[in-house]
Amino acid sequence: MNTMTETKTQPTISALVIARNEADMIANCLDSLQWCDEVIVVDNDSSDTTAELAKRAGARVVTTKGGFSELRNEALRRAKTDWVLYVDADERVVPALADEVRSAIAQSETNPHAPTAYSVRRSNVLYGYPMYYGGWQHDRVVRLFNRLKLKTWAGEVHEHADIDGEVSELQQPLLHLTHRNVVSGLLKTAEWTPIEARLLFESGIPPVKLTTLFRKFGMELLRRGVKEQGYKDGLPGWIEALVQATNRLLVYIQVWELQQKPSLSARYRRHEELVAELWRKRV
User: Fold this and answer.
1) Once rounded to an integer, what is the mean pLDDT over residues 90-113?
2) pTM of the prediction?
3) Hey, how many other C-beta atoms are within 10 angstroms of the C-beta on 224?
């Protein structure tokens, strides 16, 4: 990792990494960020050795707990460089992307009209297979920012950045090693679908019916598998389309759960009371 000096010859950059229980991924992620002036890892209350491994790799580690936007904002507060690059633990910066980032921020020094943020195209690997279709071909995320122009992050699930200035596009890919097995995918589903369901419920959507569930599942399956041509990725493409459709189904089932009156917890309390009443009569 490069050491920042007081005599600045070019814009400096911090890599900001958000991680939780990523002991298997964090070391290689940080290896791909050695070209940055500093690396800050915001450890989201991991129960494994993520924080220890990050410190061993030379990163500055901050341990906290919160939602996606809160964690990204915490990382931003810790950075002191001119630019910041957000990278998740399951993402890898390839050399060509590092070169393009350095070139982009260097040009910002001589061009007063240069963009203040850049999006990157993610190259996604799911279940061990590169995904070229199924909607993944459109996967661009804004990750490189002039630090002083990034105001804040907002949003609970699909967080977004509030930026002062223009956003441009980088061309080299950011490698994304996601959905590494079915179980880890299910754990992520269990983590984020309740949040999305709550947000939908609070928006006041109409009551969820059986037709709603079939429609949401079917539409997502057709969108991923057919409209976005996920079938061209073969069986892994169809598996991913089915997983995404199932996620949508689970979101709306949980909306249905939140819409129940009386609530599910109240219904279960009533069953408990009925059993207690039977025992009181028995005595």
Assistant:
1) 94
2) 0.88
3) 25
